[in-house]
Specification:
This protein is α/β, with parallel strands linked by helices. Helices cover 50% and strands 14% of the residues. It contains 15 helices and ten strands. The longest helix is centred in the middle third of the chain and has 22 residues, at 150-171.
Length: 326
């Protein structure tokens, strides 16, 4: 068992961040395999053939893509803590990734190969300028396969952060994030078990830990940069809930019962959100959204919790039952 240990100062300065690089890496792992996530099914069907054709175009790209999508040990140059918090850009992450030397990249890929599901060797790792070639693959996958879907994904991730930040304010980090997946969980209030491998524990620096949600229904990995910067990538809450959703006939019945906009709001609140987030998502005015929220709240279907200057709305038990949530 390997732990991430946080001092009280590190815990107090921990925060959320977004990472286009992590989203791109997750997308690659989805596109390289059959899609098991209903929320991503339509996107996967559109993009998987082009992705597989691209990564098979030359030996280097094919070998790198295979390793990144099958190994249980992800190399450092694609798993760096995002440098810009919630405003991190892919360009900035690629800038950092390009700083790795050929020797560093080879050493990291050798570790990844040792933990691959089926080792194939590194005969494809020939030539020089590995950092630029690796960055090129990540850049192309981001541009062609993730960026067109980024507004939808970013909206989900921002709502995840809003929800979790509210829980942190009330309950603290350990209860707010709880068990992130079957391999990662909080141990007491000052340590995170992130691996079952018997590796040395890590100590998070005074600047704190970054928690990075991605729009996947499963999978967690650690990002690390010397001397003591860490980020933990984890699946955003609500992806699986949205994937399931109510059956189409139930959704139509709900619209007829309470109106199309109020039904949409109730369904969207499978993940808590603010009035502004809902208005942006539904592309209606803030005032109109507020009016519908007031009706749903008065009916006992949703409730609001103040988090700083924001009010975060979530469904009540009655709202869950009406929306057909499991």
């Amino acid at each position: 068992m390997t732990l991430l240990r946080l001092s009280p100062r590190a815990l107090s300065r921990s925060r959320f961040a977004l990472s286009p690089m992590a989203e791109t890496l997750g997308a690659m792992r989805l596109l390289a395999n059959p899609c098991l996530d209903p929320w991503m099914a339509a996107w996967h069907e559109r993009h998987a053939p082009a992705f597989r054709a691209r990564v098979g175009a030359d030996r280097f790209t094919a070998g790198l893509a295979r390793l990144l999508t099958t190994s249980g040990w992800l190399p450092d140059f694609v798993t760096l803590p995002p440098p810009g918090g919630m405003r991190t850009t892919m360009a900035k992450e690629l800038e950092v990734a390009r700083r790795f030397s050929d020797a560093e990249i080879r050493a990291q890929l050798e570790l990844s190969e040792q933990h691959a599901e089926v080792p194939h060797g590194l005969d494809w790792l020939a030539g020089t300028d590995f950092a630029a070639r690796c960055a090129q693959l990540m850049s192309v996958v981001w541009r062609d396969h993730v960026l067109p879907d980024w507004p939808r994904r970013r909206a989900l991730l921002e709502r995840e952060v809003t929800y979790r930040a509210g829980l942190v304010a009330v309950h603290g980090w350990s209860k707010a994030l709880g068990s992130m997946n079957r391999r990662s969980e909080w141990v007491d209030d000052d340590a995170i078990r992130f691996s079952n491998r018997p590796l040395a524990d890590r100590v998070v620096g005074a600047e704190g830990m970054l928690f990075v949600p991605v729009s996947l229904s499963r999978g967690t990995w650690l990002c690390e940069a010397p001397p003591a910067a860490f980020a933990l990538v984890y699946p955003a809450r609500g992806v699986a809930v949205e994937s399931a959703g109510p059956a189409p006939d139930r959704a139509g019945a709900l619209e007829r019962l309470i109106g199309a906009v109020r039904a949409r709001i109730l369904l969207e609140l499978s993940r808590p959100a603010t009035t502004t987030e809902l208005a942006t998502l539904l592309e209606i005015s803030l005032g109109t959204t507020g009016g519908h929220i007031a009706i749903l709240r008065d009916a006992g279907l949703i409730e609001g919790t103040r988090v700083g200057r924001r009010v975060v709305y979530r469904r009540t038990d009655d709202g869950d039952r009406l929306a057909g949530a499991p």
